[in-house]
Amino acid sequence: MDIATVDELLTTTRSVRRRLDLTRPVGRDVIVECLRLATQAPTASNAQDWRWLVITDADKRAAIAEIYRSVGAAYLAAAEANASDPQTRRVYRSALGLTETLADVPVHVIPCLAQRFDDGNRLVAASAWASIIPAGWSFLLALRSRGLGSVWTTMHLAKEQEVAEVLGIPATVTQAALFPVAYTIGANFRPATRPPVETITYWNTWEQPVGES
Ligand SMILES: Cc1cc2nc3c(=O)[nH]c(=O)nc-3n(C[C@H](O)[C@H](O)[C@H](O)COP(=O)(O)O)c2cc1C
């Protein structure tokens, strides 16, 4: 394996909102190819119950964007105003921007799971979410490797049912996220600042992180 390339993919797959190219068409084949890669991800009990809904229809994207905006715009504006550190403020400003551009992002992808687990216990819920989230992340990695980008969003799930009605998603299906997908403007993304892993990693016991011994 080419470790340098793999590490670059893992460290530079960012949330892309402002650098989504809203003018460049995205072909069906590249989406299907990335979804095919994503379905190599694991599922609990090998159920393989991922489902994907790809939305290119402009009217449907507009309807989804309107629902997204109705959940997110006021919340994100307030969050941006109240953010104490510049990095978080930038994230909220960028997220607020997406509420304005979402309808124009050429492809929306909704990763779904073909089950409901609303009343499930922690084991059931953790198993269900982890049966779609790894596949979702693999999809975003595959996009990045091919010059496309996206951002993991959950905002619309506050109105999951409204989006289900727009798209005809049955009541037996759980939506996990919404990925706005487009080619990125440029491909130079950088690793983000993160806490040193030694400060958040414990070894054998939860007494203190390994870096602080
Ligand atoms: C579970 C989850 C939900 C998120 N929901 C949203 C969202 O609704 N809207 C949005 O613009 N970004 C959303 N994000 C993206 C985060 O804001 C982003 O990952 C974070 O700011 C770090 O940026 P980076 O991914 O470029 O490192 C979400 C991320 C995760 C993991």
TrEMBL record:
The keyword Oxidoreductase applies. Residues 12-181 form the Nitroreductase domain. Keywords: Oxidoreductase. The keyword Transmembrane helix does not apply. Its EC number is 1.13.11.79. Pfam families: Nitroreductase (PF00881). Coiled coil: none annotated. CDD domains: Nitro_FMN_reductase. It comes from the Bacteria. Gene3D superfamilies: NADH Oxidase (3.40.109.10). Belongs to the nitroreductase family. This is 5,6-dimethylbenzimidazole synthase. It comes from Mycobacterium simulans.
